[in-house]
Amino acid sequence: LLLLLALILLAATAEAGKNKKEKVKKDGSKCEDWRWGPCVPNSKDCGLGYREGTCKDESKKLKCKIPCNWKKKFGADCKYKFESWGGCSAQTGLKTRSGILKKALYNAQCEEIVYVTKPCSSKIKSKSKAKKGKGKD
Q1: For residue 137, which of 73, 119, 122, 125 sits 20 to 30 Å off, Cα-Cα?
Q2: Residue range of the domain that includes 101
Q3: Residue range 106-112: mean pLDDT, rounded
Q4: Going edge to edge, which strands form the sheet with 78-82?
């Protein structure tokens, strides 16, 4: 009886695992080799939009979003890990840092290493230790 119970339990778990593997993707497509275009905003150069994908003779659109502070020339689908900003160059008035490709989303064509610059700060930050308005006279 114990052996029979063990066999029934084993068969039930095997059937459950089989059902998980047989599930079709949500969109009903069996195609595996999707090619995705860039995210195209609905208006201007950022915000909500869509990206088009094709696979063999199928095509579909997915909703996407480009953050409005994302003005990088290398695109929103290329994710980089950036190092700290370098020192200020006296000749150019710019500081530079590099980023190494961490992830390319939707099969995007990304550069392995990118360099970005920004103007050097003209303000000199001073660390004042005096606190105003909190003490007694």
Answers
A1: 125
A2: 78-119
A3: 87
A4: 78-82, 94-104, 113-119
3-state SS track over 27-42: CCCCCCCCEECCCEEC
Q: How many domains does the chain have?
A: 2
Kindly report the backbone phi and psi dihedral angles of residue 81, in degrees, each rounded to the nearest multiple of 5, phi listed first.
-105, 120
45 belongs to a structural domain: yes
For residue 87, being part of any structural domain is answered with yes
pLDDT tens per residue, range 40-89? 888 887 889 999 999 988 899 999 888 777 656 777 788 899 999 999 99
- State whether 61 and 87 are in the same domain: no
Which pLDDT does position 108 carry in this prediction?
A: 83
What pLDDT does residue 106 have? 85
Instruction: Examine the pLDDT at 132 and tell me if it is beyond 90.
Output: no
Distance in angstroms (rounded) separating the CA atoms of residues 110 and 107: 9
135 part of a folded domain = no
- Note whether 22 and 11 are within 8 A (CB): no
* pLDDT grade for 18, boundaries at 50, 70 and 90: very low
Instruction: Let me know: does 28 contact 1? Beta carbons within 8 Å.
Output: no
Specify whether 83 is located in the same domain as 114: yes
